[in-house]
Amino acid sequence: MAKYIVAEVSAIPPGERLITTVAGRSIGIFNVEGEFYALRNRCPHQGASLCEGLLIGAVESPEPGVVVEGERRDILRCPWHGWEFRLATGESWFDPTQVRVRRYDVEVAEGAEVPERPLVAETVSVSVEADYLVVEL
Q1: Hey, which residues does 76 pair with through a beta bridge?
Q2: Does residue 124 sit in helix, strand or coil?
C-alpha cells in the first residue's frame, strides 16, 4: 500500500482532529493524548461524515446504578444517529463483530527519515495563460 504524507504532527494537537482527502477518500485523523488514529469519514449506517462527530470516553459501570464516562476520549459518535466506534480498531461499540468503519494505520516519521518512496504527495499542475490561472486535475 502507498503511504501519504498528510500533515505535520503539530497540525493536530492532542484532543483535535484533521479531516482530509487522501487518494480520493475522506479520512479523519485524530490525536488522542499523543496517539494518532485514522478512520474513514463515512458512517456505515447511512453515510454521515462520521469524523465530524463527538469524541467521548467509554462508559463503565463499577457497580449497579453507577455510570462513569472514561477520561480518555477514544470513542467517536456519529453526528447523525449516535452510532459509536472505537478509534483504535474501527469497531462499533454496540456490535464489534459485525459493524465497523475502515481504519488506517498512522505513523509519525521524522522529516529527515521520511523516505522518498513509496510515499506519495499529491501535486497539481498550474500554468498561467494570459491573466488566468488554470489548474489541471
Answers
A1: 55, 85
A2: coil
Query: Alpha helices, DSSP H only, in the chain?
Result: none
- Count of domains in the chain? 1
What Cα–Cα distance (Å) separates residue 109 from each residue in 25, 39, 112, 114, 115? 22, 19, 8, 6, 9
pLDDT in tens, 70-112: 888 899 999 999 999 999 999 998 887 889 999 999 988 776 6
- Angle ∠(102,104,110) on CA atoms, nearest 5: 165
**More reliable by pLDDT, 137 or 57:** 57
Helix %, strand %, coil % for the chain, to 5?
5, 45, 45
Torsion of Cα atoms, 6 then 3 then 87 then 51, to 10°: 40
CA distance 110 to 87: 24
Cell numbers representing residue 126 in the block: 498550474
The residue segments making up the domain with residue 129 are 3-136
CATH number at residue 103: 2.102.10.10
Model pTM score: 0.77
